[in-house]
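Bit of a strange request maybe. I'm writing a small parser for structure token strings and I need a real example to test against, not something I typed by hand. Could someone generate the tokens for this chain?
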Amino acid sequence: MILYKKQKEEEVTRKEAEWKQLQQKRDAELQQKLEGDIRKSVIADFENKFRLLEQNNQDNEEKLRQARLKELEFLQKEQSLKNKEAEIEISVQKLLQGEREKLSEDLRKIEEQKIANRETEYQLKIKELERQLEVQKNMAEEMRRKADQGSMKLQGAAQELALMEILAATFPFDEISDVPVGVRGADCMQIVRNSFGQECGKIIYESKRTSTFANDWIEKLKADMRNQGAEIAVLVTRMMPKEMDCFGIKDGVWVCSFSEVKALAAVLRDGIIKVFNAAKSQENRGDKMHLLYDYLISNEFAEQWKAIREGFISMKLSIQRERDAMEKLWKAREKQLEKVLLNAAQIRGSIEGISGLETVDLNLLENGEEIPDEIT
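Reply from user aminoacidic:
Good idea to test on real output. This should exercise your parser:
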């Protein structure tokens, strides 16, 4: 029984050992299987995680690339904005500079206008003062001239009076008369009478007491001689003509100084009386031929014909001057016309040489006339 128990115990022990071995084997297999499953699961998890990591890495790289692209685009935009900002700044600076220059120019123009206005006002004031000064000078000159003129008139009147006194004292039988003030004519007239009291002729006298000699005195005195029917005209002057140093005749008028008038008047008076006596001796002929002859040889006819001749010569000289001026003008226009025709011919030759055609009519002359040889 004890042996049986021992056997049973041994068997139980053996079975327990077998069971333990089996259990251990199963545990080992289970553990191995579990480890394999765990390993597979870990590997699968690792692979999943690796794939996820790779996917995440790819996504991150893509995101990084996109981010870099966006950053690059942003940088480009930022640079573009900076460039635009710089350009805007430059434009603004240019605009400001232009506005400053415009403002400076406007200010300068305003200042120049102000200066010009002040200068104009100054010039106007100067002109006004100059005008006032000129007016004052003119007034002073006019007053002085009037005073001188009054003095000259007084001196001239004194010389006229002295001349009439000399003539009246020297020739008591003659009639000495003065011309009233304001009446056209010479200063005084001498009606020559012979010893029988007969009127033989007339001598007119013009008195001048100026510092210069004027040539128009001669023409005026000749006209007065014709108007008053005098035979001789005498100009008594303090200043003789440049070509005369003593008394003499100038253009049909006797010119002398005050100291020479007495002797000259005596000679002229004697000549008039002789001519009158000679004419008187022929007075009784009575026929028209002698009357016509007397008229043709008379001093009246000579003076009238001289006036006609002087007018004719003046008219002829005027016509000649006009003719010379017109011929000069025609000559200048002819030269201008020749120059125009020459240039037209050169242009025509150039155009025909370039185009080779003669269809364009560039002739300035009518009916196809050619330019004269002396022009070309």
